[in-house]
Specification:
Layout lengths: L8 E4 L20 E4 L1 H4 L10 E4 L11 E4 L6 E8 L7 E7 L12 E8 L2 E9 L18 E5 L8 E6 L7 E6 L6 E6 L18 E5 L8 E6 L8 E8 L2 E8 L33 E5 L8 E5 L3
Antiparallel strand pairs: 1-4, 2-3, 5-6, 6-7, 7-8, 9-10, 10-11, 11-12, 13-14, 14-15, 15-16, 17-18
């Protein structure tokens, strides 16, 4: 990955890895897109903050394939990334968010760009998703569309779907869901905490700041967990939305003070002692989420971070 003389353009260099690596240390193809903030990576000056990504190609036979992506200063392109086969063609697409991208004259609305990912390099830009698309909410300043991304098969049709966290939507937060299919991603609806009794009152709840997808009840469809760590003196929360044939529905609130381990069944959520007890205000429960099969039973489990 190389720096650019012009900070509005990023050069992405996907060179093969060191041939000295042992064969068993080299995956068959790239397994991640490295999120690199422009300042931390030293690619852009302090004023630009356009953002950057570096795609790491791990095929020894693949030549370096530099490409250029036009960026705008302040976009913070690369804030979140996710891979998925959203159109079912067998090739991965790469979703990259730019949370401070303006929509017209409206600042910091955010956007998600989708790139085709083939042959160990990122190629053409397929689509740009913003809040101006049909069916989505009217864009407002500082919504941060794309703050978190999560890929899962929420409707069980075999195509990957994409959830886009937008923690400043209407000062409460929201998640916008796009379902995959032969034609690519289609907007399917907006998730908020308002569907949970007693939860709609929360302002600055930061709903959508963290996302995790997993099949927690082993029904062949992924569920989505949404973190809401809160900017107020509340401890934070996380919400489980169930995957169904029609997409994500319902919501169950998960809160600190009742959780030590999260395992199925019960729509994938059960609480086991010893519990954590009641944590102090400002705990930021839900600031980070991770899903995986922790106990080897072939059913996904959930970890919720509470850094406060």
């Amino acid at each position: 990955m190389t720096a650019c003389d012009d900070p509005s353009t990023l050069s992405i260099d996907l060179a093969p890895v060191d041939p000295a690596l042992a064969d068993d240390e080299i995956p068959e193809k790239p397994d991640a897109a490295l999120v690199a903030d422009a300042l931390e990576a030293g690619l852009l000056d302090d004023e630009a903050e356009a953002g950057a990504i570096a795609a790491l190609g791990l095929d020894l036979a693949a030549p370096a394939r530099p490409s250029a992506i036009a960026l705008q200063a302040g976009d913070r392109f690369g804030f979140a990334t996710a891979f998925g086969d959203f159109d079912g063609d067998g090739d991965l697409e790469l979703a990259v968010s730019a949370i401070h991208k303006a929509t017209g004259t409206i600042p910091d609305v955010g956007a998600v760009q989708l790139y085709e990912y083939t042959g160990y390099y990122v190629s053409t830009l397929q689509e740009t998703y913003t809040l101006t698309q049909p069916g989505l909410t009217e864009p407002q300043p500082y919504e941060k569309f794309g703050y978190a991304l999560a890929v899962g098969d929420y409707d069980g049709d075999g195509d990957d779907d994409l959830a886009v966290g937008t923690p400043d939507d209407d000062d409460r937060g929201a998640v916008f869901v796009f379902l995959g299919g032969p034609g690519g991603l289609t907007y399917a609806g907006k998730l908020t905490a308002a569907s949970v009794p007693g939860e709609s009152r929360h302002v600055y709840h930061w709903f959508g700041a963290a996302l995790a997808a997993g099949d927690f009840n082993n029904d062949g469809r992924d569920e989505l967990v949404v973190g809401a760590p809160s900017w107020t003196d509340e401890p934070g929360a996380a919400y489980l939305f169930r995957g169904t044939a029609s997409g994500l529905v319902g919501a169950t609130a998960l809160r600190e003070g009742a959780i030590d381990a999260v395992e199925p069944p019960c729509y994938g959520i059960c609480f086991f002692p010893p519990t954590l007890g009641v944590l102090a205000p400002g705990t930021s429960f839900g600031a980070a989420l991770a899903a995986g099969d922790l106990d080897g039973d072939d059913i996904d489990d959930l970890i919720v971070g509470a850094p406060g």
